């Protein structure tokens, strides 16, 4: 193996693809301080901002996904794909990576296709219980596939699969020692139960509407709410900060404190969120987004709910929310069982295990 290692990483579109990519890079950097890193993302997507903030160089490809309905973007897709394959090839030729890692998102397809064509060892990290079309295609030529759920041999070659879990923030591993600190940080009443509502960085319209419709209900239940409404909805909902026991946040800078302070969590079911919540080990009510590809959030949530580790409430069933929530709030035994069962599904060593697989490819 040559002295200087070059590592190419592609993933983006959402925080669920970007965060694992950065976590893998950080762990590799600890092991190989002299390694060179280059990220490849999609132009105009959030990775073009988040990756440089984490201290890494990134190149952008002109690529986007195919919409479910007929749009102008769909007509331009073949041109974007050809352009991205050409540019990915140029990036690889110039950077000369020793390994290419894909964590999902539009740009990882062209990048890993060209890496495979040039004989570079590739590893894909699939976060969801139901893979997207890009990773299904890439899996045929990938050397290793790191997954977070069981039974993915339905989609991927079984001999390439390693169950590692999804990388999570390391500060979540010690949240139970931060309960008081978290409650102080959010200026909470320590005698009251705290509900944490998470809709993702941009926000979730249906969850926000649900919370808004149940503000009086929460008051009657005597709970306090940390409500992360998201960037797209903050202006609409910030007025509710004036209500006692309701805190509305655009985003939460200290997720460890938010998790530590909470007693019950209401959340979307993106892969990264699910993995974090398994480690956090609090009672969770999942309200998955039905508007994502392959309905993978519902499948993620169901994989936890089927093992009695969470409650799954579909958007089409939200009229039953008050009954479901009040029953959970009053049943300490149910809360305890959910906590114990979801913790059993946690894979806290995911980042280390994924990087161990990358190392094996580097040493081949």
TrEMBL record:
* EC numbers on record: 2.4.1.227
- Identify the domain of life: Bacteria
Identify one Pfam family in the record: Glyco_transf_28
Its pathway, per UniProt, is: Cell wall biogenesis; peptidoglycan biosynthesis
What is the top EC class of this enzyme, as a single word?
Answer: transferase
What is the topology of this protein in the membrane according to its UniProt annotation? Peripheral membrane protein
What are the record keywords, sorted?
A: Cell cycle, Cell division, Cell membrane, Cell shape, Cell wall biogenesis/degradation, Glycosyltransferase, Membrane, Peptidoglycan synthesis, Transferase
Record domain Glycosyl transferase family 28 C-terminal: where: 194-344
Q: Which Gene3D superfamilies match?
A: Glycogen Phosphorylase B
Instruction: Cite the binding residues for UDP-N-acetyl-alpha-D-glucosamine.
Output: 14-16, 128, 169, 201, 297
Reactions listed under catalytic activity: di-trans,octa-cis-undecaprenyl diphospho-N-acetyl-alpha-D-muramoyl-L-alanyl-D-glutamyl-meso-2,6-diaminopimeloyl-D-alanyl-D-alanine + UDP-N-acetyl-alpha-D-glucosamine = di-trans,octa-cis-undecaprenyl diphospho-[N-acetyl-alpha-D-glucosaminyl-(1->4)]-N-acetyl-alpha-D-muramoyl-L-alanyl-D-glutamyl-meso-2,6-diaminopimeloyl-D-alanyl-D-alanine + UDP + H(+)
Q: Where is the Glycosyltransferase family 28 N-terminal domain positioned along the sequence?
A: 7-146
Record's subcellular location: Cell membrane
Q: Which family does it belong to?
A: Belongs to the glycosyltransferase 28 family. MurG subfamily.
Function in brief = Cell wall formation. Catalyzes the transfer of a GlcNAc subunit on undecaprenyl-pyrophosphoryl-MurNAc-pentapeptide (lipid intermediate I) to form undecaprenyl-pyrophosphoryl-MurNAc-(pentapeptide)GlcNAc (lipid intermediate II).
Name by which UniProt lists this protein: UDP-N-acetylglucosamine--N-acetylmuramyl-(pentapeptide) pyrophosphoryl-undecaprenol N-acetylglucosamine transferase
Recorded source organism is: Polaribacter sejongensis
Output the lineage of the source organism: Bacteria, Pseudomonadati, Bacteroidota, Flavobacteriia, Flavobacteriales
């Amino acid at each position: 193996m040559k002295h200087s290692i070059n590592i190419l990483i592609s993933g983006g579109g959402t925080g669920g693809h970007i965060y694992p990519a950065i976590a893998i890079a950080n762990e590799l950097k600890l092991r190989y301080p002299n390694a060179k890193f280059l990220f490849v993302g999609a132009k105009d997507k959030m990775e073009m901002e988040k990756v440089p903030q984490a201290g890494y160089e990134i190149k952008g490809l002109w690529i986007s996904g195919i919409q479910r309905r007929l749009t102008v973007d769909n007509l331009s897709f073949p041109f974007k794909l050809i352009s991205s394959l050409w540019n990915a090839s140029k990036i690889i030729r110039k950077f000369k990576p020793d390994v290419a890692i894909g964590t999902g998102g539009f740009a990882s397809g062209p990048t890993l296709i060209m890496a495979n064509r040039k004989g570079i060892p590739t590893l894909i990290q699939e976060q969801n219980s139901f893979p997207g079309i890009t990773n299904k295609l890439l899996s045929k030529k990938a050397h290793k596939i790191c997954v977070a759920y069981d039974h993915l041999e339905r989609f991927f070659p079984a001999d390439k699969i390693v169950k590692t879990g999804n990388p999570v923030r390391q500060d979540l591993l010690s949240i139970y020692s931060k309960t008081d600190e978290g409650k102080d940080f959010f200026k909470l009443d320590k005698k009251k139960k705290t509900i944490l509502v998470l809709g993702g960085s941009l926000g979730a319209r249906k969850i926000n509407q649900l919370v808004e419709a149940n503000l009086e209900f929460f008051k009657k239940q005597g709970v306090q709410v940390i409500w992360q409404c998201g960037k797209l909805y903050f202006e609409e909902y910030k007025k509710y900060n004036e209500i006692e026991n309701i805190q509305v946040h655009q985003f939460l800078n200290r997720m460890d404190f938010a998790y530590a302070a909470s007693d019950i969590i209401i959340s979307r079911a993106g892969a990264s969120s699910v993995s974090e919540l398994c480690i956090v080990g609090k009672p969770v009510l999942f309200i998955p987004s039905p508007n994502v590809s392959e309905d993978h959030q519902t499948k993620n949530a169901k994989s936890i709910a089927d093992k009695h580790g969470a409650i799954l409430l579909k958007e089409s069933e939200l009229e039953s929310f008050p009954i479901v929530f009040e029953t959970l709030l009053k049943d300490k035994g149910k809360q305890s069982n959910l906590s114990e069962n979801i913790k059993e599904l946690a894979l806290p060593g995911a980042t280390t295990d994924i990087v161990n697989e990358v190392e094996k490819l580097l040493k081949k």
